What does this fold into?
Amino acid sequence: MIRVQTEDFDVGRELAALTDGRTDIGGLASFVGLVRDFVEPGGGTGDGNASIRAMTLEHYPGMTEKMLAEIEAEASRRWPLQASLVIHRHGRLLPGDRIVLVACAAAHREDAIQACSFLIDWLKTKAPFWKLEDTREGERWVAAKESDDLLAERWLKK
Amino acid sequence: MKVLYFAWLRQRVGVGEETVNPPADVATAGQLLDWLAAKSAGHAEALKNRSLVRIAINQEFAGLDAPVKTGDEIALFPPVTGG
It folds into this structure.
């Protein structure tokens, strides 16, 4: 299931809903992405060096849902999943806010964990979202990272 | 055809969407980018560095050689940064 929304989501409730009433699921893996308050590199830990005041996520309505559905379908082709869920927010978010939830349920843990990892790696390089950071120095579009491309490429079929 | 711009391409062009009618010899996405870049200083600035422009035709990623035609929805945007 794919959801693209401005509202927050309740992780516990969403994960419970995936497995409620099911007795065929042995493992549920999930990933939650959050808004960080520091700019890479260097970093900070909310200790006063925080430089990101907010983050606005822009997306391409229509293509976003289509790409997420394609990526989810690809995960189901590669691993025997009993259920999967991708929720991605857009709009203005604050440090600490949840951005994305990816969850995969399978009979066995390794399928669930691998599929979850695949989903977030491909989402980051294929789903049309863009992050605009509001920093103390002004607004800044986040640049795509080569490390994200490399993480996505490891799932390409040889 | 309809052209959509996102993120900093939208800001540089100055609009998020426009309807364009390129001449018949504009047959590929690459030729469309060349033609769009000549429309205004903002278009030229947005499309200056082609290595940072991603193209989707009718909501599917496409390359510079991909054919474009009347009625297509073309989206131009920077490399994606969601998740």
User: Anything to note?
Assistant: DSSP finds three helices and five strands in chain B. Chain B has a mean pLDDT of 97. The two ends of chain B are 30 Å apart (CA to CA).
